[in-house]
Design goal:
With 396 residues, the chain is mainly alpha-helical. The chain is built from 13 helices and 9 strands. Strand 8 and strand 9 form a beta hairpin. The structure holds glycine (GLY).
Length: 396
């Protein structure tokens, strides 16, 4: 059964009834297909985790390190929700223990990406199964994330050791997706410090990472001693003054999530402005180039940004009144992008590849994950599928 919100967009938008039937059939076959791919990876990955992106089509396998391992755990939870097959739950629960050891020993936890890591593994476990150990691990991760908050600058530092002068006071747009862990921690414990830090960070991100035209800097430096704003630049985008597609997608989804927890409508309006900027800079099939400034060139696409944007748009629409003039446009755009990804970017079973969503770009300048599958692209494609096909309670 299609999710009501998607059904509604189809009624409003599909030119012919068969368009909506065709989209529905596409999603149903995609669900069956991704379950086959995830099931194959379950066997092949065993207890290990896929690296950030594929290399020549295949994920190298790693221990539970770096910032992306939970995107595989998240796929397992989604696969369990889609199929009811307990093999997925059993492996996701093994991952929860691995994430427990990781945070207890503070192994590779010097990053704001604790939000991604613990939301999709342990918070998901708690929400779905009431796993109290997972709840505890998530709260430890929230403590570690809160340590990265700078009181004067009112931001969470993205990368590096807090004593590293090169990374001091640097916030990045991606962090918006790490904030739900903090909001959740306040809900669970009644300790407001987590949610206050998350909200302060979201406000600073809105103020400094977002430019006047609603494009975004990837990163922005604050002075941690005085709290003064310094300057924005890029790490993974085309140029300091361009708009890195994935950053914009993280912004659409992330500001919407901060609205969800805080009720601050300015953040929802901001998410809309970011969405408009993004949607106005897409090629015909709706799958963005890796930087939005590269529209009209033959630059590579970044399907991972497209999948994040679809999830962000669907979440955004849940909070807009039906009278909102842009709501139908967002739903239609989400459907168009999803359809393109499903038809032209989803890996086939016999492709020389073990990822799900082909043609992502991780970091072009450093030759990392260029035109490969990315673990987060795979995760958000599956999240989008679940969002469209069933009524789904977000892990975020
Ligand atoms: N958060 C890092 C990236 O999106 O590449």
């Amino acid at each position: 059964m299609l999710n009501n919100i998607v059904k509604e967009s189809l009624h409003g938008m599909a030119d012919e009834p068969h368009d909506s039937r065709q989209f529905y059939d596409e999603l149903i076959s995609a669900r069956e297909h991704v379950l086959k791919l995830i099931s194959r990876n379950l066997t092949d990955f065993g207890d290990r985790f896929p690296a950030e992106t594929c290399v020549n089509g295949y994920y190298p396998l790693t221990e539970n390190v770096e910032w992306t391992t939970s995107f595989w755990t998240g796929q397992l939870w989604l696969a369990w929700e889609m199929s009811g097959d307990d093999r997925y739950r059993a492996m996701a629960e093994r991952h929860v223990r691995s994430f427990g050891l990781r945070i207890a020993g503070r192994h590779d936890t010097n990053t704001h990406d604790l939000g991604f890591l613990y939301t999709l593994s342990c918070v998901a476990a708690w929400r779905l199964t009431g796993n109290t150990e997972a709840r505890g691990f998530s709260l430890l991760a929230a403590d570690a994330l809160l340590e990265r908050f700078h009181d004067k600058a009112r931001i969470i530092q993205a990368w590096g050791d807090l004593s590293d002068p090169d990374q001091a006071g640097r916030m990045i747009i991606d962090c918006n997706m790490n904030l739900p862990l903090l909001y959740w921690a306040s809900e669970q414990t009644g300790d407001k410090r987590f949610a206050e830090a998350a909200y302060e960070h979201a406000r600073q991100a809105a103020r400094y990472l977002v430019r006047k035209d609603a494009s975004t800097y990837h990163t922005y430096y604050m002075d941690i001693t005085t709290g003064a704003a310094r300057y924005g630049n890029t790490q993974q985008g085309y140029a300091d003054d361009s708009c890195w597609s994935r950053g914009q997608a993280w912004g659409i989804y992330g500001f919407t999530l901060s609205y969800l927890y805080t009720g601050d409508r300015e953040l929802l309006e901001l998410a809309k402005r970011l969405a408009n900027y993004f949607l106005n800079r897409l090629p015909e099939d709706g799958v963005c180039h890796w930087d939005l400034a590269l529209l009209g060139t033959d630059a590579l696409r970044d399907s991972s940004s497209a999948s994040i944007a679809v999830c962000g748009l669907l979440e955004l629409c849940k909070h807009l009144p039906v009278t909102d003039p842009e709501r139908a446009h967002y739903l239609h755009a989400a459907q168009h992008i999803m359809s393109s990804m499903t038809r032209d970017y989803l890996a086939r079973l016999d492709d020389p590849c073990n990822g799900l969503l082909k043609h992502s770009v991780y970091h072009l300048a450093s030759h990392k994950g260029v035109d490969e599958c990315a673990s987060w692209g795979d995760y958000f494609y599956v999240e989008a599928l679940v969002r469209m096909l069933q009524s789904w309670k977000p892990y975020w």
